[in-house]
Amino acid sequence: MKTKKALVEEMITQKKAGITLKNEIGTTKYIIHAEMSANGMVERPDVVGAIFGQTEGLLGEELDLRELQKTGRIGRIKVSVNPQKGKTPGTITIPSSLDMVETAILGASLETIDRIGPCEAKINVLKIEDVRSTKRTYVVDRAKEILQKIMEEQLPETAEITEEVKKAVRVQQIVKYGKDNLPAGPNVKDSDAIIVVEGRADVLNLLRNGIKNAIAVEGTSAPETIIELSREKTVTVFVDGDRGGELILRELIEVADVDYMTRAPPGKEVEELSKKEIITALRNKVPLEQAITEMADIGKKEEKQEEISELNEFGDFIKKLPGTLDAYLLDESKKEIAKVSVRDLIDTLKNSENIHTIVFDGVVTQRLVDVASDKNVKRVIGVKVGNINKKPLDMEIMAFK
To answer: Quick one: pLDDT at residue 18?
Structure first.
């Protein structure tokens, strides 16, 4: 037997397809569901004929099945039979637009049928279904589906439109500040604290995220406007997470009164940060003195890392040296020109040309540096570095221990 929802959906489908039914969804109130059993082989027309024939005149003209069907007050009688083993069980459904009492009387009249065709038969009414209740259930379920679709498809679009409008308003709020006409948020003039960023795009991104007291330097040189503002307001420098951001900070430190410093995550620019990243960066700002110390530590680490990296390039020579008191003289492409004893290094150096690097098992002294400088040597690598008072600007001096 079909479910209520399936039955209603079938009726809707049939109506859309142009099939005219007496029991269409617009008129049917109730559906009589009955089961039948015949002691013999019967067919659908036999059942329908028995229903019309044996109920004729039983309930009077007002409830005569033929008249009710003609006037559309009952729909097409549906019969399903399944003959098997000399008997015929089946089901009967009759759509009705009568009221509840009349439909119940009509259903009860079916149970008076005792023969179908030549066979004894019995019909039992299982239930009378209120189709309007089924319709209401279907309407509620379908309304939920429609509403869910609206929520999924239209609300995000509305949110996007709202966000676009907000962004447009924030972009319109950008102003030109000071005699240098620097891009700035509308609150720079009245705020006690300002955020100094690199460029106009950074100011716009902060505006989009509700921060209105930012001003851009628009270059690596600090404008006079920024210098003047730093004397009057608390200044936080917010730079990109790259080498360029550090250069701008160093420039500002020299000429302006900077109070705090913060930066974007490594490899990112302020203009591309999300609101969460911006808020996190500003919360993590540090006093200028701490920022200078951290930059100095980073600089030392970078120099040390660069030195280690360069020493690794000469690893094949360095690992041969300990305890040998030997020296390797290399050309610009790191190829060996000569290998000499450390005690002969200076004399050999005086009489050689095109030496680019010296790698030796000994201490780098001032005398060696002076001779190497005269011969345009660019790099001297020893076990350790002694007291060098005069270091040539174009020479690298390193130790591998």
So the answer is: 43
For residues 193 and 285, membership in a common domain is answered with yes
Is residue 124, in this structure, part of any structural domain at all?
A: yes
Question: Do 211 and 332 belong together in one domain?
Answer: no
pLDDT at 1 over 80: no
Pair (38, 131) in one structural domain: yes
- Predicted TM-score (pTM) of the model is 0.40
The CATH number that applies at residue 88 is 3.30.70.3250
In-domain check, residue 17: yes
Q: What is the 3 state secondary structure string of the chain?
A: CCCHHHHHHHHHHHHHCCCCCCCCCCCCCEEEEEEEEECCCCCHHHHHHHHHHHHCCCCCHHHCHHHHHHCCCECCCEEEECCECCEEEEEEEEEECCCHHHHHHHHHHHCCCCEECCEEEEEEEEEEEEHHHHHHHHHHHHHHHHHHHHHHHCHHHHHHHHHHHHHHHHHHCCEEECCCCEEECCCCCCCCEEEEECCHHHHHHHHHCCCCCEEECCCCCCCHHHHHHHHHCEEEEEECCCHHHHHHHHHHHHHCCCCEEEECCCCCCHHHCCHHHHHHHHHCCEEHHHHHHHHHHHHHHHHHHHHHHHHHHCHHHHCCCCCCCEEEEECCCCCEEEEEEHHHHHHHHHCCCCCCEEEECCEECHHHHHHHHHCCCCEEEECEECCCCCCCCCCEEEECC
Residues 6+ away with beta carbon under 8 Å from 399: 364, 381, 382, 383, 384, 385
User: End of a domain among 121, 138, 155?
Assistant: 138
Tell me: the pLDDT tens digits for 156-193? Answer: 566 666 666 666 655 557 889 989 899 999 999 889 99
One domain for residues 202 and 270? yes
Number of domains in the chain: 3
Q: Is the residue at 21 inside a domain?
A: yes
| Same domain, residue pair 248 and 344 | no
Instruction: Read off the pLDDT of residues 332-360 as tens digits, 9 standing for 90 and up.
Output: 988 999 999 999 999 999 998 999 999 99
Phi (first) and psi of residue 388, to 5 degrees: -110, 110
Does residue 156 fall inside a structural domain?
no
> Does residue 71 sit in the same domain as residue 131?
yes
